[in-house]
Amino acid sequence: LMVDESENKYYQEPYRPQFHFSPKKMWMNDPNGMVYHKGVYHLFYQYYPEDIVWGPMHWGHATSKDLVQWEHKPIALYPDENGLIFSGSAVVDFANTSGFGTLDNPALVAIFTYHLMEGEKAGRTDFQTQGIAYSLDNGDTWTKFEENPVIGNNGIKDFRDPKVFWDDINHAWVMSLVAGDHLQLWSSNDLKKWTKLSEFGKKQGAHGGVWECPDLFKLKVEGADEEKWVLLISINPGAPNGGSGTQYFIGDFDGAKFTTKQTREKWIDWGTDNYAGVTYNVLPKDFYGDTYSNDPEQDRIFIGWMSNWAYARETPTKKWRSAMTVPRKLTLKKIGTEYELINYPVSNLNNIIHSEYKETIQIPADSIQSVPFKNYNQSQVKFRTTTKGFELVFKNDVDDELLLTMNSEKETFVLDRRTSGKIDFHEDFASGVQTMPMNNLGQAEFEVRILMDASSIEVFINEGQYVMTAQVFPNKAFNMLDIENNASGTIILNDFEISKVASIWQ
Ligand code: FRU
């Protein structure tokens, strides 16, 4: 083992996230199997229990009642003779279509990719297949289906990450699955026998890297009598600011095929560190009643892995590697002529955010103002403004600086972590600034909300229309914040609020 168990108490180590989920120890990547069942949100995740770098994949497991506090559970799925357990999803088999459970105690069924390392080593291309497993005790113990794999491989090298949902149109299970450069949709009545429905995407969207971790779901367009389907596709590499990133498509699904008129590339997050994110499965309450519906509000909740394959294995932590983004609620808005996928922290997070300072701030032209930002270790900064010319500089007394610049002329938001502390563990982390174009922001007042944890920053502009997530490793926690006026006249930041975010790890 590479890990020194003696040094610090868990969750008090340098850079340990205090309000983001991270495994107690060892390596984690993608969120998996996100499903709500019997009052509990399950979070499974790609996990290697032997080291702090990627290795033979298991599914780690944690649960939460509110998406804020998490409880660690034993490892759910271990590799077997069919291979390692790669990413996938989980469903409540409420109608017992699989026969694994009963109507009174429906099975939780996990659908995942098997990766056969031996096959890959032997130079074959058919080493990824899809398998299933079930649990009758709300995720505590799992049994693999003895006829695995349920979908074999016809020689497609990258064939993975099944996300299954219940389709109201055909009353059948639908699986989205990626195959190298495109999406495949498959259908099943029992989660065991699958038939291919259609393909999408060879010519659509960004193709800088392999397609990974698809998710297809329906959302209401806010304030309109309209519903649209959203397809999330992670790609690695090929993200707008380098390495791994998650694009989305807005379109329609007729029960067999996904189609879109979208011509522009769209990204759920413009920062470098939000990858492989997918959503909790939601069963429509009006159809299935309270027992199986997700929550009273039928929210669509997203969690991403807060890292980037470009340097994920080298980040400067010792006992564990990486964390998840805060859970975010997804909504769909039509802004101007564009459909925009909005992602914004779930409201439960407010329960651990405590306001320490709130004033309206005016900054004259050509000047800089310091605000009473302290060393809270984990903080939120929030304000509303119409001003698009300002720079926020987070600092500490060892000269680390993290710069956030809103540029009104270019309509961009730029995150610069080049002088933010430990950066030299990988050249892709150290080099370049991260730029987010905001050409559909409009002229009205908008909110800027920043969540800062021990080794990350998440920026939400206009309540999640434009989002940037990035890891940051300052040598000491930032304890000063300067705001620079880059506009032509006085700028006004309304209800400028600084809050302390409580730790979720006691
Ligand atoms: C995405 C990914 C998935 C795969 C998993 C392996 O980060 O590459 O496509 O299933 O990680 O750990």
How would you explain this protein's 3D organization?
The chain has three helices and 33 strands. The protein is mostly beta strands. The strands form seven sheets. It has a six-stranded antiparallel sheet, with no helix packed on it. Strand 26 (401-407) and strand 27 (412-419) form a beta hairpin. The chain is globular. It binds beta-D-fructofuranose. Beta-D-fructofuranose is lined by residues 29-30, 46, 57, 86-87, 113, 160-161, 212-213, 276.
Helix run count: 3
Low-confidence stretches: none
As laid out across the biggest beta sheet, the strand order is 22-33-24-29-30-31
Overall outline: globular
Provide a concise account of the structure shown:
By secondary structure, the protein is mostly beta strands. The protein is 3% helix and 47% strand.
Keywords:
506 residues; mainly beta; 6-stranded antiparallel sheet; 3% helix; binds beta-D-fructofuranose
Give the topology, please.
Layout: E1 26-37, E2 40-48, E3 58-64, E4 71-77, E5 84-92, E6 108-115, H1 117-121, E7 128-135, E8 143-144, E9 159-167, E10 172-179, E11 182-188, E12 195-200, E13 210-220, E14 227-236, E15 245-253, E16 258-259, E17 275-279, H2 285-288, E18 300-305, E19 320-321, E20 328-335, E21 338-345, E22 353-363, E23 368-371, E24 379-385, E25 390-395, E26 401-407, E27 412-419, H3 427-430, E28 434-437, E29 446-453, E30 456-461, E31 466-471, E32 480-485, E33 491-501
